[in-house]
């Protein structure tokens, strides 16, 4: 039976997390760095050190596992993420722009945002798309990205301070450049783009009052969190509780409206749970797992969690469900228990390696637990 949806308030002062499933990061010399030619995540080498990066293909978080890539750089001491402020795929395609909730996640996890825009593209020539107003093969304005990365390398304050600085001083200019680029792309390709009037009205509001801008996306983020609380995704297996809102504050007093798949009352404590389900395999994909853990990395660092002005004890849990499993296990557990569980189920060698690393990750991050079991 599902519990009633709850709203929690929390406070985070700092985030410490060890990611044991993080991929090995390819390295690139800064002098030769081109955001369009590098892997989705990696390490930029400079004379006096390095910083880890990820890049987004769209400002919308649901497009291509950006959180999974961000998980891969959690262990790096300094981290940046390159996000397009706007992505227009043509009048018959999607139109996405950066949201305040994305900035919220980056602020709380001390990840520096690099604002980017696309300045070249081609007409979409894929089968079934040629007659539509769609573009593809969009490329970033690489010098704009590189200039900001160079600044971040020299920047001494926190990512939170940088993110507000870049939003206040660069956002309008880069957004305008994005709009101008799409007009040029439209002329060059003959593809009609989305009506720019709405985008320009949005930009005028930002120009007239930056404080209003900070409020507009924040309100949208709050509304989005409420909608997400009421949404169940087809690949999620939710049987233990209900989605919940978490209103998180940081030391500067900002409020960030986030959601968790479920919050479950487990006797004397609450469990913040992210759920990932595999319908055809024994274990969800590695990207799904990393996506869930990235959110829990933040939730596991909440200093205090309140429900109706009452402090509550809590832990975080990643629930993984898959096809054909014969039992359920809770990690961390003894190595003997874990190996017996692996032997009694039909995991691939790669899946066994992932599960063993999850065991290690739980030991490094004591608030994290992982539940693995059947999806029926």
Radius of gyration: 22 Å
Summarize the amount of helix as a percent range: 25-40%
**Proportion of residues in β-strands:** 25-35%
Q: Overall pLDDT, averaged?
A: 88
Main sheet characteristics: 6 strands, mixed, barrel
Strand order of the largest sheet: 1-11-12-13-15-14
One letter per element, helices H and strands E, the order comes to EEEEHEEEHEEEHHHHHEEEHEEEHHE
When the domains are counted, the total is: 2
Stretches with pLDDT under 50, minimum 5 residues: 216-221, 223-239
Number of beta-strand segments: 17
Distance between the termini: 16 Å
The shape is globular
Description:
- Mean pLDDT is 88; it is low at 216-221 and 223-239.
- It is built from ten helices and 17 strands.
- The chain is α/β, with parallel strands linked by helices and 376 residues long.
- The strands form four sheets. It has a six-stranded mixed beta barrel with strand order 1-11-12-13-15-14. A five-stranded mixed β-sheet has the order 2-3-4-5-8, with helices on both faces.
- The longest helix is centred in the middle third of the chain and has 20 residues, at 210-229.
- 35% of the residues lie in helices and 28% in strands.
Give me the secondary-structure topology:
Layout: E1 7-11, E2 27-29, E3 41-46, E4 49-55, H1 66-72, E5 79-84, E6 86-88, E7 95-97, H2 100-108, E8 112-116, E9 118-123, E10 135-140, H3 142-154, H4 159-169, H5 171-189, H6 196-208, H7 210-229, E11 242-249, E12 255-266, E13 269-277, H8 286-299, E14 304-307, E15 310-322, E16 329-331, H9 335-344, H10 349-364, E17 368-374
Parallel strand pairs: 1-11, 2-3, 4-5, 5-8, 13-15, 15-17
Antiparallel strand pairs: 1-14, 3-4, 6-7, 9-10, 11-12, 12-13, 14-15, 16-17
Helix pairs in contact: 1-8, 2-4, 5-6, 6-7
